[in-house]
## 1
Amino acid sequence: MSLATKIGSLTLRNPMILASGVLGTSYSTLKRAYEAGLGAVVTKSIGINPSSGNTNPSIFALNEIRSVISSIGLANPGFQVFREDLEKLLESSVPTIVSIFGESMEEFKEVLNGLTDLPIQAFELNFSCSSSKKDRAQISTDPDLVFEIVKELRTNTTVPLWVKLTPNVSNIVEIASSAVRGGCDALVAVDTLKAMVIDIQTKQPILGNKRGGLSGAALKPVGIRSVYDLYEHFDEEIPIIGVGGIYRGEDIIEYLLAGATAVEIGTSLGVAYPENMVRFFQMKVKKYMEEHKFSSISEITGGAHK
């Protein structure tokens, strides 16, 4: 029995990946996450210039539903500064996926070209940000723009490209199809869901940026549906990484059955000891495989479609 899984040409020791934005801001936190037992890590989204992000408060916990509404605002040190942490991380042989963002084709290309010489495992394209060339509409909701950017970046690097999909669209398969036509190597589903919370005493939005994104357990049914729809359309044409609301080992299995070859875990690792959580997840997945006589992760993937 093996927990190893393949995402295109990349083989991971297990299907659990640290999601972008959680414990992914520095060499030390990323290394700690991998040493906790994960199969790989995704960095926080990195852009051209340093940014302090949105004003506080930027996170609001919804403890009753094990979820979080956040509006960090893509705070990051810029790719040139972050490159130093990346080099140390890669020297430690940590399988690393670098999340990058930009507000235009040119910005995406500059960040990618500035890091593509490093031996990273993949770039995760974060399209859930503004596009100055489309009246600041989200790149992630425009299939033509998604196709154009992925196609152009594909000509600039041989490093695998993963496209992170937003759930805030009427047809996620349409956006995914544009990314696949552009030449991406994997799909990541899903990013946060548009959300908001208001203080009834002050009668004002609680977050400094007013609007935010929902992550955590409440997002899982949306993530499962998205992965299921994508697998139903693409079958085994393209690897799918499920993300959203993983708090139990059973959640990982559910994503695999829906069609994922791996999962990204975020919120739950940020509110508990990652070493204990990862150990617990591994135990649950192994027990399920033993009970159902599965010898590999690939035997579980897409099982709900059979």
## 2
Amino acid sequence: MSATPLPELGWNDRFASQPLDDLIPLRVTDIHKSYIGTIGEAGSETLNMTLDLVDQGITVGDWVLKDPETNQPVRVLERQSLLKRRNARTNMDDQLIAANVDTLFVVSSCNKDFNVARLERYFALAHQGGAEPVLILTKADLADDPDSYAKKAAHSLPNVTVLVLDAKADTTPEKLASYCGTGQTVALLGTSGVGKTTLTNALTGLNQLTKDIRGSDARGRHTTTARSMHRMNAGGWLIDTPGMRALRLADAREGLEMVFADIEELAAQCRFNDCAHESEPGCAVRDVVEPERLLRWQKLMNEDTFGNETIAETRERYRKVGKVHAGGKARGQAKRKPRPSPNR
């Protein structure tokens, strides 16, 4: 890629206010095992993947500072936003997805891939990471009633922008132009086969190959195999990511509270502080929220609380719970105290 002024790459006052120490800022466009691709005011450069970068953690969209004398990257600048998930294999560390993203296009399709529970996870990830989520529903041209998918999404994800489109249509870039202007960064997230590569081609002018999906379950094969950043025709930058079916949230309590803001507000009105929203008297949630959505909220909250524990932490928690139950049997269960009245 040719030389590009820093503001066009997404540089702003947040980055400029950090100590630069006469080092050269570059934005990361792709990452490989032994090197990283970057772009800056002098154009594209390939830099070594140093141990410092590995220790700091680095992902596509990051800003790194290069020492002009050694031509080596020195450090990663503090991020404006960071999208990450818990490593599904180890459950012990975070997998960085993309950094300094303004808008996250959560991509689903108007077919069997559509899954509200999965979308809630994606939106919690976006909110937690500091990016604005927008739901893109693709393959509208292949659905009998594409608007029904938009209604389902809007019902379960209140206050969310939902756009229904045919990624191959000539009008697609225009529909998304407000998110793709100069200096803006968009990331795509979704499962394989929903049309992310087609959308990337439409927004960037690239001609990446796409693959068919299985008719039985609308699942696709990975077309994108690595994260990479591309210039969009509207002037901004797009970070494409491989299809992501397993998504374990990493410390996403604030993001979940935003996705389920209506339940959180109701729960604060329950009579008991520890209300399980099952059979307790004075529950403000149980008769208002749909049972399926309530279960999804409880599941994700429990996963965020306990799902990211180490083995040692889990054992310690069970040990403490065992002690509490043993003591309760010996002494009898103490009466639960109602939530204090706000008028007192």
## 3
Amino acid sequence: MTRTGVMICGHGSPDHEAIVEFRTLADQIRDAMPDALVESGFLEFAHPTIAEGLEALARHGADRILAIPGILFAAGHIKNDLPWEVNRFAATHPDIDIRLGRELGIDNRLLEAATQRIEAALGLAATAVPRDETLLMVVGRGSTDPDANGNVAKVARLLWETMGFAKTELAYSGVTTPLVETALANAARQGFKRIVVFPYFLLTGVLIKRIARWTAEAAERHPAIDFVMADYLGHHPLVVQSFVDQVRELEETQPAMNCQLCKYRHQIRGHEDEVGQPQVAHHHPEGECHSHGHH
């Protein structure tokens, strides 16, 4: 009889609260899948590493492992780092069937969770402002991969068209532009009575806290505008369900990422030298913490 193990793969963070939140999320997924062995691990900054989590599943008797990325969009971590980790484990455990799932992506459940986070923040606002006088700013993490950045823009558009705000703006916490501080300054000049800032992030961390600080600073500079910051996706039940559905999908088939705009497969203007790059991890093989341009 096949013994299935589920590996929830996180990035990791130097922020202790972020690590605790990820472990809590993994516990909730474990509770939702009582028949499976569930472990979690990180690419860097924390233990157990993904390699350590995979080894734990092997010790517990898993002969099939379904590795699920705890990452929203496909950029370098999904396209390079996680496959490298999985392939390294597979090479030393040929008797175990290990499969890597796709990124969480743009998913109806996650969009509904995002909508509810924004609605909840508006429900706590001290004053009532019509939505036709409100700007929604969606903040993504930011990446060197234009495909991942473009998906944040798609999320912003979907939320705007379904929630009835007057306008949406896009911002990123780093790596690419527009950065949050610049986007907030630009939005404040547009004449809206309220600006809702929604970080489309899975969990808390250093970047979420910076976004909150930048939003508070913008509110101090523009007291006539009501700035509202919505919560990130977090442990919303629909987030947990999205992970469970990813596991079920991987049990039945091998889902593929959308590679039509992948800079490693196609010549995307400005990224021509990255086509066909070898699939390697930039993390230390033992998961040691180090900086590689996240800031």
